[in-house]
């Protein structure tokens, strides 16, 4: 039961009706956060590496490097056992009652990945800070060099099977018209022109919406696109569909997962992604012009 029995839940997820995302606070900006700094039940999490955190961070932010909740090489793309995640979250002062705000350098993907892990383990009140640390600095907000020492709490994980997909549930999704697979890699990777894995192409039936189509740079700062533009980006997918996102190792597609949740879709992320899938010769792949094989 190292992963809280998550594998037992992933396949039944395909049989459940699509469920709308909750409407809690999910995306905040610098003004929202600076106006609430110091609130007792607000916890700010900085997912950058300790060296970057020590060079300056948001006041009161707790350093929780995203790599601390993933496995060791060669499977550093897969989440750590639930016992490790519970220990790391508890030490960081996290419990399920708080409003969490997560930020990274401004690339979005590390913060989104932590948000995905938190939601998989049952935390429902998690928001992404738009623009990350980069926009905070650019907007002249105060920073701190003093490491925050959180008071440990007891994080009790509760698996949410609707947030995670496995190799098996992704394989079953190929034949399920109620599930849409979104490949968040580049068009070249999707087409099979390049690949960092053993095989080239994509999972059959998947559609390609690159992860970086979700954001833009505004006045030099990284920002998620407005909701109207994001809705247009995913307009071809019915709100009643269930969605599985994947990329190469699960990082970029975590942002796609976050955006889909923000738009109200029932989304899950396939953590093993293309590197796990394509390195298994028993699983089908599709390459532009070649068809599935």
From TrEMBL:
Main EC class the enzyme belongs to: transferase
Annotated keywords: Repeat, Transferase
GO molecular function: thiosulfate-cyanide sulfurtransferase activity
Source organism superkingdom: Bacteria
Protein's name according to its UniProt entry: Thiosulfate sulfurtransferase, rhodanase
Record domain Rhodanese: where: 38-145, 175-286
Species of origin: endosymbiont of Riftia pachyptila
InterPro entries (alphabetical): Rhodanese-like_dom, Rhodanese-like_dom_sf, Thiosulfate_sulfurtransferase, Thiosulphate_STrfase_CS
SMART domains: RHOD (SM00450)
Annotated EC: 2.8.1.1
């Amino acid at each position: 039961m190292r992963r809280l029995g998550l594998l037992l839940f992933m396949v039944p997820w395909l049989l459940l009706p699509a469920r709308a995302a909750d409407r809690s606070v999910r995306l905040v900006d610098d003004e929202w956060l600076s106006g609430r700094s110091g609130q007792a039940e607000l916890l700010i999490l900085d997912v950058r590496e300790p060296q970057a955190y020590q060079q300056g961070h948001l006041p009161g932010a707790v350093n929780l490097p995203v790599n601390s909740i993933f496995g060791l090489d060669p499977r550093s793309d897969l989440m750590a056992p639930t016992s490790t995640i519970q220990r790391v979250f508890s030490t960081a002062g996290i419990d399920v009652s708080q409003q969490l705000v997560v930020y990274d350098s401004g690339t979005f993907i590390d913060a989104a990945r932590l948000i995905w892990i938190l939601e998989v383990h049952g935390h429902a009140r998690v928001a992404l800070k738009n623009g990350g640390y980069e926009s905070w600095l650019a907007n002249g907000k105060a920073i701190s060099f003093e490491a925050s020492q959180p008071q440990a709490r007891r994080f009790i994980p509760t698996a949410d099977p609707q947030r995670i997909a496995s190799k098996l549930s992704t394989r079953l999704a190929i034949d399920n018209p109620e599930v849409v697979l979104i490949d968040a890699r580049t068009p070249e990777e999707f087409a099979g022109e390049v690949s960092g894995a053993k095989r080239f192409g994509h999972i059959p039936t998947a559609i390609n919406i690159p992860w970086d189509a979700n954001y833009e740079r505004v006045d030099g700062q990284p920002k998620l696109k407005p909701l109207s533009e994001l809705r247009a980006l995913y307009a071809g997918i019915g709100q009643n569909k269930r969605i599985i996102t994947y990329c190469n190792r699960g990082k970029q597609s975590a942002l796609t997962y976050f955006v889909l949740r923000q738009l109200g879709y029932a989304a899950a992320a396939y953590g093993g992604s293309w590197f796990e899938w394509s390195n298994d010769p028993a699983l089908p792949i599709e390459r532009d012009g070649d068809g599935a094989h």
